[in-house]
Amino acid sequence: LGLDMEELEEIEEDAGLGNGGLGRLAACFLDSMATLGLAAYGYGIRYEYGIFNQKIRDGWQVEEADDWLRHGNPWEKARPEYMLPVHFYGRVEHTAAGAKWVDTQVVLALPYDTPVPGYMNNTVNTMRLWSARAPNDFNLRDFNVGDYIQAVLDRNLAENISRVLYPNDNFFEGKELRLKQEYFVVAATLQDVIRRFKASKFGSTDSVRTMFDSFPDQVAIQLNDTHPAMAIPELMRIFVDIEKLPWNKAWDITKQTFAYTNHTVLPEALERWPVDLVEKLLPRHLQIIYEINQRHLDHIASLFPNDMDRLRRMSLIEEGGTKRINMAHLCIVGSHAVNGVAKIHSEIVKTQVFKDFAALEPEKFQNKTNGITPRRWLLLCNPGLAELIAEKIGEDYVRDLSQLTKLHEFVDDDVFIREVAKVKQVRGVGRGDAGWRGHRLGADVLPALTQENKVKFALYLEKEYKVKINPSSMFDVHVKRIHEYKRQLMNCLHIITMYNRIKKDPAKLFVPRTVIIGGKAAPGYHMAKMIIKLVNAVAQVVNNDPVVGGKLKAIFLENYRVSLAEKVIPATDLSEQISTAGTEASGTGNMKFMLNGALTIGTMDGANVEMAEEAGEENMFIFGMRVEDVTELDRKGYNAQEYYDRLPELKQAIDQIKGGFFSPDEPDLFKDVVNMLFYHDRFKVFADYEAYVKCQEKVSELYLNSKAWTKMVIRNIAAAGKFSSDRTIKEYARDIWHVEPSDLKIPPPNEPRDVVEDKTPNGTAA
């Protein structure tokens, strides 16, 4: 058709149906499950409006609706033949035949299917997203004879359920619409799963009594955080009220079916739903949760008689003030496996957050360190590097990332070192970057020579931000959701410190940097929005100071999202992973940067710990407090003032922020930020500032030696194999789901089956 694929890719909208790492992890997992040949489904909500588009106006974040379906979505197929009813409100009647949930309001769940292709294995799985539809008799069946027009307009109330994604990352907002969304996806999905299970049993001689005995052998459901926790009481409701199973049998099957992944330890992120809200919206589910809790507490009381405090700590219901349901406790009690997402996080889960539960059933608690799909996060976004690696070690690493260790053989190979530097860097034009087309890993012809990753991104920045970028400067990148625990403020203080050093001694050698900070703040998160404004205010001063010139540039990257990550990550030299130790469950951006030839400056937090274990701590820039140091500092009391008094460069930076140096028109603009840093900084920015700045000096020093830097890059890439989501999914499959991955390549539909069978030795596909 004479169209250019890259141009089309630029036009297509991101499906921004998640907030941060959690949604992106699910997408990587779907890619890996298909590539590993697992019969797996991803279920979620087809939000009409995804995560907001971020605009920066006058340095402030402004949100715009993400109307991602405006031009249609060619990848989805509506499946009205599988539409299902979901019930809300109503009341419970207790009859001789058991409990009945009656007088409910019905919303229909319409599924949309999106294909999920495995990598070169002719396997295609399904992601099924539910959209809310009002039934045609909505508001018309009840004798309100009069207002037909209003009744039709009110259909929106039902359909609002799938209208918009709640934009909070690591924060719980207990709104009724959000609870409706959580139950909506759960109720539709479980009906779908049971329909498919019963169809597989069609014609079997099982009695209704024994039909569900094999359910956990044929169905595994992974709860991605507590957001789908209502699946546990919902499956119990189906088994007990509808299928008439005895409670104990239903509970046994339910527990064997579910497993729960915990994704955060921040208390403000844990879901705690008010009992009276659940009672209004889902009255039968509240009764079931009470029954689950009663039996759970009876069991604990039998093991620990008279330990009232333990009962209080372990209850699913939190008393005091408004009664709430602790959804994490519900997930732990209702699942056969519970896991964290990095070794250090899983330890914290076991020994701190849920220690009473782990003491009771230690075998239930596991670790599954997160991973990323190398298909998107290397082949697709960085074809130049992917091709260079393939030339050295072959193409098989794409499906078995552990093979990257073979690159260790080339760490002293001068030609390879130069090539790796060139893919990232500047030196004119070189390898193509038009995706797998034009590579031995893909199709036919090498595309025209194009710029390397940094040059290409520098041109993008100059076009979008009208700032002149030196492509040979160090690209120092901090992209992720804006949150106090991720400590973008500490990075900001470092920018100010570098600025002050240049101003103090302009003649002194300074390793040039382009510092890029990007990410969205939840619309209601005041401090996160102030942090964005501060970064932009500092950038304004730094970028327009003639004394600084090309030595230092700071840019706030607008509207950070997957498609932008695919551009910035391959161009990055230094990856910032600087959360306070013990706060970032895993992180996955850290892994993407490592795989794409950036070096990491980071704390011993999340998966950074395992990255250091794989690559060697001497090949990362690790600094700052460990979890033990944070605990100790909490014990003796964190006093920000003492760091301010002791560190002149920190004092200077804070005084500039406080005194209006970066906001001359509104000198006290940042008083809330400064006040927080001194008096209620839970994440102890000042405590790590000195170690951070010193560590950054070591980074600059190494960057001067291009060869030594690149050798460290190669060692990092060679150590990145563990962080493939293929490895993560194999562990879930083996330890939790009890299914076997298959590397069988299904024959393509255009090949007759018998021909295929002739070609394969001893009857197994290749």
From TrEMBL:
It comes from Anhinga rufa. CDD domains: GT35_Glycogen_Phosphorylase (cd04300). GO terms for molecular function: glycogen phosphorylase activity; pyridoxal phosphate binding. Pfam families: Phosphorylase (PF00343). Transmembrane segments: none annotated. Its cofactor is pyridoxal 5'-phosphate. Homodimer; enzymatically active. Interacts with PPP1R3B; recruits the phosphatase PP1 which dephosphorylates and inactivates PYGL/glycogen phosphorylase. The lineage of its organism: Eukaryota, Metazoa, Chordata, Craniata, Vertebrata. Belongs to the glycogen phosphorylase family. Residues 741-766 are annotated as: Disordered. Allosteric enzyme that catalyzes the rate-limiting step in glycogen catabolism, the phosphorolytic cleavage of glycogen to produce glucose-1-phosphate, and plays a central role in maintaining cellular and organismal glucose homeostasis. The modification N6-(pyridoxal phosphate)lysine is found at residue 592. It catalyses: [(1->4)-alpha-D-glucosyl](n) + phosphate = [(1->4)-alpha-D-glucosyl](n-1) + alpha-D-glucose 1-phosphate. It is an enzyme of class 2 (transferase). GO terms for biological process: glycogen catabolic process. InterPro entries: Glycg_phsphrylas, Glyco_trans_35, Pyridoxal_P_attach_site. Keywords: Allosteric enzyme, Carbohydrate metabolism, Glycogen metabolism, Glycosyltransferase, Phosphoprotein, Pyridoxal phosphate, Transferase. Residues 751-760 have a biased composition (Basic and acidic residues). SUPFAM superfamilies: UDP-Glycosyltransferase/glycogen phosphorylase (SSF53756). One of its GO terms (cellular component) is cytoplasm. Its EC number is 2.4.1.1. This is Alpha-1,4 glucan phosphorylase. The keyword Glycosyltransferase applies.
